[in-house]
Amino acid sequence: PVTLQLASPDGSTIATGHRNGLIVLRDAATGKEISRLESHSQPIVGMTFDKAGKRLISCGKAPVRGRGDDDDLEPSERIVELKLWDIPKGTVTRNFDGARESQGIAFAPDE
User: Fold this and answer.
1) What is the 3-state secondary structure of the chain?
2) CA distance 73 to 34
3) 59, 81 in Cβ contact below 8 A?
4) How many CB atoms lie within 10 A of CB 109?
5) 87: Cα within 13 Å, side-chain hemisphere
6) Is residue 4 predicted with pLDDT exceeding 90?
7) In the chain, pLDDT over 70 holds for what percent of residues?
8) 62 falls in which pLDDT band (50, 70, 90)?
9) Chain-wide mean pLDDT for the chain?
């Protein structure tokens, strides 16, 4: 199932984050799949495009060692996986390990 969806800044691409950690990019006009970004192992809980639509930051729940779930933890105690994607190449260019869950993710306005 889809956990969230997001349009690129120019509206040409729709990104959907899925419960299995998959991100699917689709052409907004046709609905045709453009690519699949596979690297997360847990549900996608946040995404944002840069203003050019060439990079994407994704946020996925991190596996909880020795626990079934982290729902009883405060958001600031939950660990997430943050990844920076190069959209044209379909590759992760940077992992941000040990990040804490927050209310949102964004690129700096001048990015």
Assistant:
1) CEEEEEECCCCCEEEEEECCCEEEEEECCCCCEEEEEECCCCCEEEEEECCCCCEEEEEEECCCCCCCCCCCCCHHHCEEEEEEEECCCCEEEEEEEEEECCCCCCCCCCC
2) 36
3) yes
4) 6
5) 21
6) yes
7) 77
8) confident
9) 84
Residues 41 and 62 sit within 8 Å (Cβ to Cβ): no
Which residue in this structure is represented by tokens 């964004």? Answer: 106
Give the model confidence (pLDDT) of 10-33 as tens digits.
Answer: 999 999 999 999 999 999 999 999
pTM, 2 dp: 0.81
How far apart CA 71 and CA 67 sit, in angstroms, is 10
Q: Give me the residue label for tokens 């997430």.
A: 80
